[in-house]
Amino acid sequence: AAMAGCGWARAVRGLLLDVSGVLYDSGADGGVPIAGSVEAVRRIKASGLKLQLCTNETQATRESFVRKLRAMGFDVSVAEVTAPAPAACRLLRERGLRPHLLVHDDLVAEFAEVDRTNPNCVVLGDAAENFTYANLNEAFRLLIGMEKPVLISLGKGRYYKETDGLKLDVGAYMKALEYACDIQAEVVGKPAKTFFESALAELGVPPEQAIMIGDDIENDVGGAQQCGMRALQVRTGKYRPSDENHPKVKPDAYVNNLAEAVDIILQQL
Amino acid sequence: AAMAGCGWARAVRGLLLDVSGVLYDSGADGGVPIAGSVEAVRRIKASGLKLQLCTNETQATRESFVRKLRAMGFDVSVAEVTAPAPAACRLLRERGLRPHLLVHDDLVAEFAEVDRTNPNCVVLGDAAENFTYANLNEAFRLLIGMEKPVLISLGKGRYYKETDGLKLDVGAYMKALEYACDIQAEVVGKPAKTFFESALAELGVPPEQAIMIGDDIENDVGGAQQCGMRALQVRTGKYRPSDENHPKVKPDAYVNNLAEAVDIILQQL
C-alpha cells in the first residue's frame, strides 16, 4: 500500500542510501542501528542490486565512519561511501584551491593530499567543538581578506539530533560567514546536484534506474529528485509528520523504515 | 570641498555620533582615540549644538562605556548615550518577555531589572568570547523549543575592527540562529528606525535638524537617512573605499574624520 503504483521500481538497478537516520541514529555513544536496517542492507546485497551510501557526514573520515558502521553489523566498505570531503578534495584540485580548514579534527585526514599552505579558500564542515569564537573569526578574516572570497561548505543542514539533544549543523555557521562577508558559499554534499551525480557514477547506474532513500525531505528527497532519481522518505531519523505537507518536495513514496522500503522494492523485481 | 553644497547643514541643531570608529578605535587594550575627536566633541559642546552618542555597543553597560570614554578624554555623560540594551529592556517590559541572554558578561547588569526565569525569548548581543559552541546550541534549543520563537538581536552588524583585527559581529550569529530556526530576528539598535527615533527623542531635536555621523555605511548612514536625517560617513574606523560605490546608500557627504565634519558644520552656522 505504501508504494502502490510504484511499478517504476521494477526498473531499479541500484539504491542510494542516506546513513544517519536511515541505517542508525547518531549520538555521543556512537549511535544505535535502526531496527531491521542491518538485515535490509544484507538483503539488498544478496538481491544483486547495487548499493551506495550517500551521506553528508563530516565528523569522521570514511575509514573511521565505515569502521563504526561495520561494528554495528552493517556489511559496507569505504568504496561504498560517497561523502562531502572527498568531493571537496576533487573540487579543490580541479580549481587549484588551497583550503583553510574549519572542520572536525577527525576529518582532517581526508585532506592529507591537499596543499594547505597560503590558503585561498575556506572549507567549512560540521566542526562541532571546533566552532569556537577564535576559529570562526580566523576563517572570517581569511575570507574577507581575499579579493574574491571562496567559501566551500560541506553541506548546509540547519541542525541535527544527537542522543543528548539538538545541535546546530554546518549550515548555520555557513550562513554566519556568508552574511559577514556578503558572499554565497558553494555547497558540496547533498542537496548539490554534482554530489548526487558523483554518487550515481560510483553506483554505476543512471538516475532513472536508481532510488534514493533518506530521512531528510529537502537534502535527500528533494536533491535526488532534482537529479532525475526517484526518492523515498523513511519515517525514521529526523522525519517529522509535518514533512508530509512540505510546500515544495513530495517523495515518490513514504515508507516506515529502510526494511519496509527493501521489502517493497524487492517484491517488484 | 568635502561638503560643497551642504547649505542644509545651516539648519542643524543637534548631532548623533556613532562611537567606535568615529570617536575611538576599539581593541583589547580598551582602544585609542581617533586623532582630533576629543577636541571635536569639546567644540560641538562649546558651539551650543546638542549631542547624543548613538551606539550599537553591547560589550559593556553604559556606565562602564562612559567611564572608558571619559578616561580617553571625551567629555560625555551616561544620559548622552543611546544604546541597544536599554531599548531592549523597554521592549521586553512592554511585551512581557523573559529573556535568555546570550550577551557579553559585562552587559548582563543592564538587564538587572528584567525577569529572566523560564525564558520565552532569546536576546542576542555581541557576546564575543561567550559565543561558544555550547552557548549557541543552548540558545538554539531554547528557540526551537518555543511554539513561536522570539529572537531579539542587539544590532545586526556584520563585523567590526579591533586593534588586533576584524571580529564577527552579532549579525553573523543572528543569521546562524535565524537559519537554523527558520525565523526572522527582531533587531534593536541601529539601523532600526525606532532606535534612531529614541536617540532623536533623547537629543530633543527633530530629524530634519539632526545629522548622524558614522563609519558604517548601512547601519549608521543608511539607517539615519531612512529616519529622515542627513548622514555623513567618516573615512575612519571600518570605512573602506568600496563603501563609496555602495549600491543602495549614498551619504549626504564624506568627511575624513569627525574633526573635519565638525569644522565644516560649525562653519555653516
From TrEMBL, chains A, B:
Q: Which GO terms describe its molecular function?
A: inorganic diphosphate phosphatase activity; metal ion binding; phosphatase activity
Q: Which cofactor does it need?
A: Mg(2+)
Where does it reside? Answer: Cytoplasm; Nucleus
Query: Which keywords does UniProt give here?
Result: Cytoplasm, Hydrolase, Magnesium, Metal-binding, Nucleus
Q: Which Gene3D superfamilies does the protein's record reference?
A: HAD superfamily/HAD-like (3.40.50.1000)
Query: Which InterPro entries does the record cross-reference, listed alphabetically?
Result: HAD-like_sf (IPR036412), HAD-SF_hydro_IIA (IPR006357), HAD_sf (IPR023214), LHPP/HDHD2 (IPR006355)
**A Gene Ontology CC term for this entry?**
nucleus
Catalyzes what? diphosphate + H2O = 2 phosphate + H(+)
Q: Which residues form a coiled coil?
A: none
EC number(s)?
3.6.1.1
Q: What does this protein do?
A: Phosphatase that hydrolyzes imidodiphosphate, 3-phosphohistidine and 6-phospholysine. Has broad substrate specificity and can also hydrolyze inorganic diphosphate, but with lower efficiency.
Q: Which family does it belong to?
A: Belongs to the HAD-like hydrolase superfamily.
Name under which the protein is recorded: Phospholysine phosphohistidine inorganic pyrophosphate phosphatase
Q: What organism is recorded for this protein?
A: Vireo altiloquus (Black-whiskered vireo)
Question: Lineage of this protein's species?
Answer: Eukaryota, Metazoa, Chordata, Craniata, Vertebrata
Q: Which gene encodes it?
A: Lhpp
